[in-house]
Amino acid sequence: QVQLVESGGGLVQAGGSLRLSCAASKRPFSSYTMGWFRQAPGKEREFVAAINWSDNTYYADSVKGRFTISRDNAKNTVYLQMNSLKPEDTAIYYCATGLGGSLYSERNYAYWGQGTQVTVSS
Prior knowledge:
Number of strands: 11
Structural class: mainly beta
Largest sheet: 7 strands, mixed
Shape: globular
């Protein structure tokens, strides 16, 4: 069992920045692929970014160039730095641990955090 706790969400104006954190209880953390997903009101949950065990990173086209995923294995924590935020980035953001297979599919993630709300005002 892996417990994930997200933090760092909040209300920000368009063009602003936020950094989300996700702390994991499981060791060794470094062997896990970690992903960020988001769910906006009335929409399905969608892939945002992922980082694998060798620190390769993957992004949705909608956030490429604005968001950066990173990890600190010593702290068992993955981060999502979000810059140039847009109102359409408003959603609940979830982190998750990967099982293997496609990084882009939520079906390949085993454990999920409770989510953190990000609201971007225009």
